[in-house]
Design brief:
single chain; 187 residues; mainly alpha; Serine Threonine Protein Phosphatase 5, Tetratricopeptide repeat; 65% helix; elongated
Length: 187
Amino acid sequence: MTQEARSAALSRKKTPPVSAKPDGQSNAATGPAFTQYQAAVQLVQQGKFDRALAAFEKLLPMAPFEIKERCKMYIATCQRQLERPNLTFATPEEHFDYAVSQLNTGYYEEAREQFNNILSGHPEADYAFYGLAVLEAMTGQSQECLTSLSRAIQLNPRNRLQARVDNDFQNMADDPRFTELLYPEIP
């Protein structure tokens, strides 16, 4: 910021926030409705959709104009989240297919969660470690990628051959540790 811009910014008159509108309603940014709104948004961020839905529905009738539409949007979001079926999978491989579909559509955190869920129930699932390695390569987490891929190869050496031709590891191609992992020296 230049000196002239700073001077201009400092010379502007600062006006205190208005606590009430001319019609007697409180300002949305300072009233109790806004405090309730913030608490409800925090519940959404924490994934507590049932509690957030109840809070937004309670707030909606008394919500100031400035946040009424946002409340409606959050109500719809909470309802969609609550209607989402609990995922159940017949096999770990089926669960893996779902995780890969999340990865391929760019839902990286959901994919990570699904791969970790597979590993929590099946700690020797080499394909889940491989999936995590792909995810970590795609998201630029090179050390984590190497750790996951190393474990996948340790559990199933065929993963080394697969990784050599897998385009998802192109971000790792210039890393000497990756090359060493895929092409170890033969004694």
